[in-house]
DNA sequence: GAGGGCGTAG
DNA sequence: CTACGCCCTC
């Protein structure tokens, strides 16, 4: 059977609920992982998801900032919402999805953006981002009690040269500086993770999941970055049937600056 | 010939430009007086009005608050934007409209709302409103160099018992307290003004131009007030053909809390 | 450029 | 309830 998992930094789930609904209707993913929900748990639009057939929702949100949620057609158990860097924000949620044939563990992440200045000595937000990455080393591709494990979300780093519109121009721009790209790749490899977007789409090919709101014409200038990721335990690699980066979503009415990424797996149990 | 003049507290002209456009398209008034444009002069959507055949626009606005504009198919001259109470806000604009047969002077007013507490001793906003009314005495129905004169706008007072949904319940509510209603009626009569809405619609009949945003269902509960006015020099009375209070506009998508009032005159020269 | 928070205004 | 300003974040 095919199981599909989507990840999307939605930049306010309440403001963009109609967009989420139309996305779910068109793409019917089995699981949707949202980031930047900007929504306290008691104000999360649960019913809207239930009405659309997503009966299982785990969320970890706060007022105004950050926030992640994992939404599923299949039974879901929250394992943990870890407080990275111990500052009480809401950037991680670890759940297990019980698909009919396999238990799939999913880490849903929203990594700090890191501010403007890529120097941890003078920019505490960048320091926070690097500290967060170091702490992410503890999240490995070990499924624990599940069969397989995914790590998805907005990692706010575009690791490869082809993950940005201009490698040269972005080398000193937060999200593509060597300390970030190298650390992220090291965290990934050391944790035993496979970069599934790059398994499906060859590293030679440019691919982006985010375009700044500030650009006049995001589509023409196309100055994007691949900030959103789908990592998997190596056993999932042969089961991956395809990845869709839904570029068109950036052109929707009142869009998020990120687009959904959908991964489809043939899970044969 | 018939000349029509509309007045509308638009509560942000930029936010509600589509509503203004659809109103102009349907009703084709010759002159439109707006209040609460909330728009600095250099950001006023001039071109949109030009495109709709309103080539003559005078505005007096500021950032964020207040602001009035007079928009016309016929040539327009600004006479004065008076600084009532000397605090530099933008609540008045005096223009002359050159209709083919008559010069029509129009005072466009946005009177201070006055805050919650109807006591000038403890509420400086109410003090300001009363001071403003006193200063309005200097604006009389004298056409000056023009043939006739109008005073239109949001006067933030409902003078008659039939200008509110409940006279009794509003006697202590700012907009319908005796000091306000009596002062306004005195300013009007002493200035030689005719209350043209009440010339067209008998004082026995309830008529409102404003419904609070706070009410759940403005149409059913119908707790409105007549805060917007069209006053004229007495010579205009026999020329008044009708007044329309466009109640339906309160039900439009993302409406202003005020509706347009349109006065039609047979100006025979 | 576009969210959110808050406070102020209507 | 709605729209602003200001300040913050991304």
Write up this protein.
The structure is a homodimer of 269-residue chains. With 269 residues, chain A is of the alpha+beta class. Chain A has one domain: Endonuclease/exonuclease/phosphatase (Deoxyribonuclease I, Chain A, 4-Layer Sandwich). In chain A, 21% of the residues lie in helices and 27% in strands. Chain A has seven helices and 14 strands. Chain A has helices spanning 17-27, 46-51, 124-136, 167-170, 178-190, 196-200, 218-221; strands at 2-9, 31-35, 56-60, 68-72, 76-80, 92-98, 103-110, 148-154, 194-195, 210-211, 224-225, 228-232, 240-245, 261-266. In chain A, the strands form three sheets. A six-stranded mixed β-sheet of chain A has the order 3-4-2-1-14-13. In chain A, strands 5-6-7-8-12-9 form a six-stranded mixed β-sheet. In chain A, strand 3 and strand 4 (68-72) form a beta hairpin. Chain A is globular. In chain A, 45% of the residues are buried. The first copy, chain A, binds a DNA duplex (10 and 10 nucleotides) through residues 11-12, 15, 36, 38, 63-65, 113-115, 125, 156, 212-215, 254, 257. Chains A, B: Pfam families: Exo_endo_phos.
Secondary-structure blueprint:
The structure is a homodimer of 269-residue chains.
Chain A: E1 2-9, H1 17-27, E2 31-35, H2 46-51, E3 56-60, E4 68-72, E5 76-80, E6 92-98, E7 103-110, H3 124-136, E8 148-154, H4 167-170, H5 178-190, E9 194-195, H6 196-200, E10 210-211, H7 218-221, E11 224-225, E12 228-232, E13 240-245, E14 261-266
Parallel strand pairs in A: 1-2, 7-8
Antiparallel strand pairs in A: 1-14, 2-4, 3-4, 5-6, 6-7, 8-12, 9-12, 10-11, 13-14
Chain A binds a DNA duplex (10 and 10 nucleotides) through loops.
Organism (chains A, B): Oricola thermophila
Domain Endonuclease/exonuclease/phosphatase (chains A, B): 6-258
Keywords (chains A, B): Hydrolase, Magnesium, Manganese, Metal-binding
């Amino acid at each position: 059977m095919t199981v599909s998992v989507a990840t999307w930094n939605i930049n306010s789930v309440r403001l963009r609920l109609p967009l989420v609904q139309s996305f779910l209707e068109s793409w019917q993913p089995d699981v949707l992982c949202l980031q930047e929900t900007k929504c306290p748990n008691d104000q999360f639009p649960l019913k809207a998801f239930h009405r659309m057939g997503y009966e299982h929702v785990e969320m970890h949100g706060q007022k105004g900032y950050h926030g992640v949620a994992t939404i599923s057609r299949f039974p879901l158990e929250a394992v943990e919402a870890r407080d990275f860097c111990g500052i009480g924000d809401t950037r991680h949620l670890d759940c297990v999805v019980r698909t009919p044939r396999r238990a799939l563990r999913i880490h849903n992440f929203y990594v700090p953006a890191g501010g403007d200045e890529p120097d941890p000595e003078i920019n505490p937000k960048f320091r926070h981002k690097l500290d967060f990455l170091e702490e992410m080393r503890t999240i490995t591709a070990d499924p624990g009690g599940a069969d397989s494990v995914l790590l998805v979300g907005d990692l706010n780093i575009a690791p490869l040269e082809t993950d940005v519109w201009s490698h040269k121009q972005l080398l000193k721009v937060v999200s593509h500086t060597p300390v970030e790209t190298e650390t992220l790749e090291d965290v990934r490899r050391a944790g035993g993770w496979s970069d599934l977007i790059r398994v499906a789409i060859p590293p030679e090919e440019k691919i982006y999941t985010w375009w700044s709101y500030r650009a006049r014409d995001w589509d023409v200038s196309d100055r994007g970055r691949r900030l959103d990721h789908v990592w998997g335990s190596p056993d999932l690699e042969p089961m991956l049937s395809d990845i869709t980066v839904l570029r068109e979503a950036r052109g929707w009415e009142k869009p998020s600056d990120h687009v959904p990424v959908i991964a489809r797996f043939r899970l044969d149990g």
